[in-house]
Amino acid sequence: MNQEMIVRTYSNMVYSVAMRYVKNPTDADDVYADVFYRYFRRERSFESEEHRKAWLLRVTINSSKDFLIKRKYETSKDDDMFDESLMSVTFSGTDISQEEIMDVRNSLKRLKEERREVLELYYFSGLNTKEIADMLQRPENTIKSELLRGRKEMKEHLQK
Asked: What mean pLDDT, rounded, does the chain reach?
């Protein structure tokens, strides 16, 4: 895959993940540029497109966290990890109201950051538990437990 195709294929994913962490379009642009700079700085070979995607996600998450540390941002438990583009997510075959989307956002905001991160990677980035475990450098069973607990907590929040 040439450089232009790689950027076209993965730019929305990288930018979206960066926005979830840094919560500012200008800062997300900086993270985005850093990720692709790191990618193109030297030749890389990947076993598959899933491997390339996982690498880009991991680097985006790390770069976002590094950015926050360097800028000494204070993040709080209640900060919104979503950008407004998630409000326009379309769910094929279902009719979901704006109110229901807001309920899901608010429910996700209540979760611990680690649990929220796992749910986002699983549902919004389309990674499986093994890929998430590799990326976050945590045991796969821990990831499965976080998914299970996160779903349960979200269900409880949404039923209230």
From this structure: 80
